[in-house]
Design goal:
322 residues; five-stranded antiparallel sheet; alpha+beta
Length: 322
């Protein structure tokens, strides 16, 4: 008897495991079932990505001989070539048909978000490594956004992250969610890295993308875990502690508040670096403490790594090194 084929496009609420559509999608689905305010959306399942990989013969990309993390110039060149190859690929017919049918009933802005199997785990968050595309408002933009998300599976930063850490990804879903126009947004750590009995909130006015790309300096707020009252962010703090209890681990949560004052949670992942009480010595191969005296979160690392890479590369060139 033939088994029923897995749907290419599914509502978030119908996911049954992270293997269906990746860690981010699974986290959003779990939050939704617990009554947490999550923007509505659908998910392209991992089966769609797997069809894309097979149809275009992309199974062996990670075995390219130039992907050697000890030879960064060659690594960058090879990863750039891989990206160009993937971005030139078209959508599988089943995916094209599913998106076209779904889009016929769409009348608003959307955000398209990568959701890999293996990200947002206790051992590796992949924060900032995979792409999201904001303000998608046409079917052509949606098609391009899906391919861009899939291509980010092999981006230079994603390949370097998982090869350097020895943490694989195994497939990818794509989340298509209603685009919230935020009044403010940011991140919340249910246990602050430097104060385990407090939670830390960092946020910016407007879209939190400006926090991620470093164009805005975030405001920072520390609240006690035992009584996290705040006139504007108290609801966020209460929801965050409830998610920590439900998931059984401290959480790194992304959130936005829309123009009407409604709170939305758009991601929750385990904090990958556990906070340590008391003084500690942390070693680094660059003078990072000079610029970032506080413990570095995965989000900040994804920004600082590129800045340091460019800084030291330029110094090397100035002194005549290759």
């Amino acid at each position: 008897m033939n088994s029923r084929p897995e749907p290419t496009l599914r509502p978030l609420s119908e996911l049954e495991s992270p293997l269906d559509a990746g860690g981010k999608a699974w986290s959003l689905a779990r939050m939704g079932t617990q009554g947490v305010p999550v923007p509505a959306g659908v998910v392209l399942t991992c089966s769609a990505f797997d069809r894309f990989v097979i149809e275009h013969g992309l199974q062996t990309l990670e075995s390219e001989p130039g992907l050697d993390v000890t030879d960064l110039p060659r690594f960058t060149e090879t990863a750039t070539q891989i990206q160009a190859r993937v971005l030139a690929c078209g959508l599988p017919t089943e995916v094209e048909e599913a998106l076209t049918e779904w889009w016929a009933e769409s009348e608003q802005l959307w955000v398209v978000r990568s959701s890999a199997v293996g990200e947002d785990s206790q051992s590796a968050s992949f924060a900032g490594q995979l792409d999201s595309v904001l303000h998608v408002q046409t079917l052509d933009e949606l098609r391009a956004a899906v391919v861009r998300c899939w291509a980010s599976y092999w981006s230079e930063r994603a390949l370097f992250y998982r090869m350097a850490k020895g943490v694989p990804l195994r497939s990818m879903g794509v989340v298509i969610q209603e685009m919230i126009q935020p009044k403010r947004g940011g991140v919340l750590f249910t246990r602050a890295p430097d104060e385990p009995e407090a939670m830390r909130i960092e946020y910016v006015e407007g879209h939190p993308e400006s926090l991620v790309n470093g164009s805005q300096t975030p405001q920072s707020l520390v609240l006690p875990r035992h009584n996290p009252q705040h006139p504007e962010l108290g609801e966020l703090a209460t929801l965050a502690l409830a998610l920590e209890a439900a998931y059984g681990a401290p959480q790194d949560i992304e959130w936005v508040i829309d123009q009407a004052g409604q709170l939305w949670l758009v991601q929750s992942r385990p904090i990958t670096v556990a906070p340590r009480p008391g003084p500690a010595v942390v070693w680094s191969n660059v003078n990072v403490n000079e610029n970032y005296p506080d413990p570095i979160s995965p989000l900040l690392f994804s920004i600082a790594r590129e800045a340091y890479e460019n800084y030291f590369s330029n110094i090397g060139r100035a002194f005549g090194f290759s």
